[in-house]
Design a protein that fits this description.
The protein is of the alpha+beta class. It has one domain. It is about 30% helix and about 30% strand. A hairpin with a 2-residue loop joins strand 6 and strand 7. The radius of gyration is 24 Å and the shape is rod-shaped.
Length: about 180
Protein backbone atom coordinates (compact mmCIF):
# COMPACT_ATOMS: atom_id res chain seq x y z
CA UNK A 1 0.00 0.00 0.00
CA UNK A 2 2.85 2.38 0.88
CA UNK A 3 4.55 1.61 -2.42
CA UNK A 4 1.33 2.36 -4.32
CA UNK A 5 0.89 5.70 -2.54
CA UNK A 6 4.54 6.58 -3.26
CA UNK A 7 4.09 5.84 -6.98
CA UNK A 8 0.89 7.90 -7.09
CA UNK A 9 2.67 10.78 -5.34
CA UNK A 10 5.54 10.66 -7.84
CA UNK A 11 3.06 10.61 -10.76
CA UNK A 12 1.23 13.65 -9.33
CA UNK A 13 4.49 15.60 -9.01
CA UNK A 14 5.66 14.66 -12.53
CA UNK A 15 2.27 15.54 -14.06
CA UNK A 16 2.30 18.89 -12.26
CA UNK A 17 5.69 19.68 -13.76
CA UNK A 18 4.53 18.63 -17.26
CA UNK A 19 1.33 20.71 -17.01
CA UNK A 20 3.39 23.74 -15.91
CA UNK A 21 5.73 23.36 -18.90
CA UNK A 22 2.80 22.98 -21.33
CA UNK A 23 1.02 26.00 -19.86
CA UNK A 24 4.14 28.18 -20.19
CA UNK A 25 4.66 27.03 -23.78
CA UNK A 26 1.08 27.83 -24.76
CA UNK A 27 1.26 31.29 -23.18
CA UNK A 28 4.53 31.97 -25.03
CA UNK A 29 2.91 30.94 -28.30
CA UNK A 30 0.02 33.35 -27.71
CA UNK A 31 2.44 36.20 -26.92
CA UNK A 32 4.35 35.51 -30.15
CA UNK A 33 1.10 35.51 -32.14
CA UNK A 34 0.00 38.83 -30.63
CA UNK A 35 3.41 40.48 -31.10
CA UNK A 36 3.56 39.31 -34.73
CA UNK A 37 0.08 40.70 -35.41
CA UNK A 38 1.03 44.10 -33.94
CA UNK A 39 4.26 44.22 -35.98
CA UNK A 40 2.59 43.16 -39.24
CA UNK A 41 -0.24 45.66 -38.94
CA UNK A 42 2.08 48.52 -37.94
CA UNK A 43 4.60 47.83 -40.70
CA UNK A 44 1.84 47.48 -43.30
CA UNK A 45 0.22 50.79 -42.30
CA UNK A 46 3.60 52.52 -42.31
CA UNK A 47 4.45 51.19 -45.77
CA UNK A 48 1.08 52.19 -47.26
CA UNK A 49 1.37 55.73 -45.89
CA UNK A 50 5.04 56.05 -46.87
CA UNK A 51 4.43 54.86 -50.43
CA UNK A 52 1.52 57.28 -50.86
CA UNK A 53 3.61 60.21 -49.59
CA UNK A 54 6.55 59.34 -51.84
CA UNK A 55 4.27 59.18 -54.89
CA UNK A 56 2.48 62.46 -54.07
CA UNK A 57 3.40 65.85 -55.46
CA UNK A 58 1.86 68.11 -52.81
CA UNK A 59 0.74 68.19 -49.19
CA UNK A 60 -2.66 69.85 -49.19
CA UNK A 61 -3.36 69.74 -45.47
CA UNK A 62 -2.07 68.69 -42.05
CA UNK A 63 -4.60 68.33 -39.25
CA UNK A 64 -6.82 71.41 -39.28
CA UNK A 65 -4.51 73.36 -41.62
CA UNK A 66 -5.67 73.19 -45.21
CA UNK A 67 -4.01 74.45 -48.37
CA UNK A 68 -4.23 78.18 -48.95
CA UNK A 69 -1.54 78.70 -51.60
CA UNK A 70 -1.85 78.54 -55.34
CA UNK A 71 -1.24 75.89 -56.51
CA UNK A 72 -2.67 74.45 -53.32
CA UNK A 73 -0.06 73.07 -50.96
CA UNK A 74 0.26 73.25 -47.22
CA UNK A 75 2.72 75.68 -45.65
CA UNK A 76 5.11 73.36 -43.83
CA UNK A 77 7.56 76.08 -42.79
CA UNK A 78 5.90 76.30 -39.36
CA UNK A 79 6.00 72.47 -38.98
CA UNK A 80 2.28 71.80 -38.52
CA UNK A 81 1.33 68.62 -36.68
CA UNK A 82 -2.02 66.89 -36.75
CA UNK A 83 -3.82 63.59 -36.70
CA UNK A 84 -4.47 63.70 -40.43
CA UNK A 85 -2.64 64.48 -43.65
CA UNK A 86 -4.05 65.23 -47.09
CA UNK A 87 -1.98 64.69 -50.22
CA UNK A 88 -2.39 65.34 -53.92
CA UNK A 89 -1.32 62.19 -55.77
CA UNK A 90 0.47 62.15 -59.12
CA UNK A 91 -2.89 61.31 -60.76
CA UNK A 92 -4.48 64.41 -59.21
CA UNK A 93 -6.45 62.35 -56.70
CA UNK A 94 -6.80 63.62 -53.12
CA UNK A 95 -5.60 61.08 -50.53
CA UNK A 96 -6.24 61.56 -46.82
CA UNK A 97 -4.80 59.53 -43.96
CA UNK A 98 -6.35 60.11 -40.55
CA UNK A 99 -6.12 58.69 -37.04
CA UNK A 100 -9.76 58.19 -36.05
CA UNK A 101 -11.59 55.81 -33.72
CA UNK A 102 -8.55 53.66 -32.79
CA UNK A 103 -7.51 53.15 -36.43
CA UNK A 104 -5.61 54.76 -39.28
CA UNK A 105 -7.92 55.30 -42.21
CA UNK A 106 -7.16 56.07 -45.84
CA UNK A 107 -10.06 58.02 -47.34
CA UNK A 108 -12.33 56.48 -44.70
CA UNK A 109 -11.17 52.82 -44.98
CA UNK A 110 -9.04 51.33 -42.19
CA UNK A 111 -5.57 50.17 -43.21
CA UNK A 112 -5.07 47.98 -40.12
CA UNK A 113 -6.96 44.87 -39.02
CA UNK A 114 -9.20 46.43 -36.38
CA UNK A 115 -10.39 43.02 -35.19
CA UNK A 116 -6.88 42.30 -33.82
CA UNK A 117 -5.14 45.64 -33.18
CA UNK A 118 -5.87 49.31 -32.58
CA UNK A 119 -4.05 52.62 -32.74
CA UNK A 120 -3.18 53.45 -29.15
CA UNK A 121 -3.80 57.04 -28.08
CA UNK A 122 -3.83 56.45 -24.34
CA UNK A 123 -1.19 57.93 -22.07
CA UNK A 124 1.75 59.40 -23.98
CA UNK A 125 1.04 57.44 -27.18
CA UNK A 126 -0.09 59.59 -30.08
CA UNK A 127 -0.81 59.22 -33.75
CA UNK A 128 0.52 62.19 -35.67
CA UNK A 129 1.74 63.56 -38.97
CA UNK A 130 4.21 66.46 -39.04
CA UNK A 131 5.23 68.39 -42.14
CA UNK A 132 8.61 70.15 -42.02
CA UNK A 133 10.37 72.65 -44.32
CA UNK A 134 13.06 75.26 -43.68
CA UNK A 135 11.45 78.60 -42.79
CA UNK A 136 13.47 80.50 -45.38
CA UNK A 137 12.86 77.91 -48.16
CA UNK A 138 9.11 77.30 -48.59
CA UNK A 139 9.69 75.64 -51.98
CA UNK A 140 12.06 72.96 -50.64
CA UNK A 141 10.76 69.42 -50.59
CA UNK A 142 8.74 68.95 -47.39
CA UNK A 143 9.64 66.11 -45.05
CA UNK A 144 6.71 64.28 -43.48
CA UNK A 145 7.19 62.61 -40.10
CA UNK A 146 4.77 59.80 -39.28
CA UNK A 147 4.38 58.43 -35.76
CA UNK A 148 1.84 56.08 -34.22
CA UNK A 149 1.56 53.29 -31.66
CA UNK A 150 -0.20 50.01 -32.43
CA UNK A 151 -1.40 47.77 -29.60
CA UNK A 152 -3.38 44.57 -29.48
CA UNK A 153 -7.08 44.54 -28.69
CA UNK A 154 -6.63 42.41 -25.57
CA UNK A 155 -9.72 41.84 -23.55
CA UNK A 156 -9.92 43.60 -20.21
CA UNK A 157 -8.23 41.52 -17.56
CA UNK A 158 -5.97 39.69 -20.04
CA UNK A 159 -2.65 38.52 -18.67
CA UNK A 160 0.12 41.10 -18.99
CA UNK A 161 2.25 38.65 -20.93
CA UNK A 162 -0.50 38.46 -23.58
CA UNK A 163 -0.45 42.19 -24.30
CA UNK A 164 1.75 43.85 -26.88
CA UNK A 165 2.31 47.24 -28.47
CA UNK A 166 4.81 48.82 -30.81
CA UNK A 167 5.82 52.35 -31.77
CA UNK A 168 6.13 52.99 -35.51
CA UNK A 169 7.90 56.12 -36.64
CA UNK A 170 9.58 57.31 -39.85
CA UNK A 171 10.11 60.38 -41.99
CA UNK A 172 9.76 60.56 -45.73
CA UNK A 173 9.90 63.22 -48.43
CA UNK A 174 7.72 63.71 -51.47
CA UNK A 175 9.62 62.38 -54.50
CA UNK A 176 7.37 64.17 -56.99
CA UNK A 177 7.06 67.47 -55.08
CA UNK A 178 5.80 70.18 -57.42
CA UNK A 179 4.67 73.37 -55.69
Amino acid sequence: MIELLTVIGILVVVSGIIIGILSTTLRGTEKTKITTSVAQNGNYALSVITNAIIASYAVTGIGDQSATSSPPFADCTNSPTGQSISLKSSTGEEITFACINDTIASNGASIIDTSQVKIDTSGTATCSFTCMQPVDKPYDVPIIEISFTVSDKAAAGAFLENKSSGVFKTSVSLRNFNP
